[in-house]
Amino acid sequence: MKLLQRSPRRDIAAERLQHRLIRQVASLLLAYPDAQMPQRLDTVEELLGHITGDDRDALARVAAYLRATERTVAECDYVDTFDMRRHSTMYLTYWTGGDTRNRGTDIHAFARVYMDAGVEPPTGEAPDHLPVVLEFAATVDPDAGGKLLAAHRVPLDVLRGALVERGSPYADVITAVCATLPPVSDQEEQRALLLARSGPPAEAIGLQPFTLTVPPRRESTSDPKGGR
Predict the structure, then answer these.
(1) In this structure, is residue 3 part of a structural domain?
(2) Is 221 contained in some domain?
(3) Does residue 224 lie within any of the structural domains?
(4) What sign does the dihedral 107-219-139-47 (CA atoms) show?
(5) How far apart are CA 69 and CA 21, in angstroms?
(6) Most C-beta atoms within 10 A of its C-beta, which of 43, 114, 124, 218?
(7) Is residue 100 part of a domain?
(8) pLDDT of residue 183
(9) Residue 56 neighbours by CB under 8 Å, 6+ apart
């Protein structure tokens, strides 16, 4: 008797769907925990029903944490985790450009990818903010979005390590996102270790003329979007 074999194309399609679902859930969980978070968590829980494996369990733990945590506490933890610490920022170009003019060029490159896919760059957040990139990769252009994430795999690994070290529940989200990307190479691993030790590059000369004008999401004493 010849056993039936699953079509490789079907396997690839199923994997791509899982990656899109994980990135969509991650985008919702990594958003600022404002008054709309309960509605986002409803969507998360619906999407989790279509995700399998360890990634589902990891994402579900973060959703449960956000559901059980008082909003003001969740807000303070979010700001302290992502806005007050250089090694756990979610602005991806800050890792590659830091406080240099190169970062403006990098931000513009993200915006160009969005426009090439037929959508306008976000008006309420910088285009390199991880939740924005994840939303784009999940719902607009999985291939272009996946390339943006893969190109910033080293910063994502550094971010994940910083969150693990801090004991943050958000580490589970970044771990799930990294699982949707190609395996890290030895060279990338060494770059991540170096970046974790040294931090982003610094050259306090501003982002003009390349940076987009983006209104602030909220008040913060530390703003990686526009340098320090």
Answers:
(1) no
(2) no
(3) no
(4) positive
(5) 24
(6) 114
(7) yes
(8) 80
(9) 48
CA dihedral 24, 103, 155, 128 (to 10 degrees): 0
Residue 114 makes CB contacts below 8 A (sequence gap 6+) with 120, 121, 127, 136, 140
Residue where the block lists tokens 């007050």: 84
* Full residue range of the structural domain in which residue 65 is found: 10-215
pLDDT of 184 = 67
Q: What are phi and psi of 99, to 5 degrees?
A: -95, 60
More confident residue, 222 or 2: 2
The conformation of residue 41, written as its DSSP 8-state character, comes to H
**How many domains are contained in the chain?**
1
Tokens coding 95:
């890792």
Average pLDDT, the chain: 82
Looking up residue 119, the CATH number of its domain turns out to be 1.10.3480
What is residue 202's three-state secondary structure? Answer: strand
* pLDDT beyond 60 at 114: yes
For the segment 36-47, what is each residue's pLDDT rounded down to a tens digit? 999 999 999 999
The tens digit of pLDDT for each residue in 197-227 reads: 665 555 543 333 323 333 334 443 344 444 4
**Among 20, 40, 19, 21, residue whose Cα is nearest residue 31:** 40
Q: What are phi and psi of 135, to 5 degrees?
A: -60, -45
Q: What are the structure tokens assigned to 134, written together?
A: 């994840």
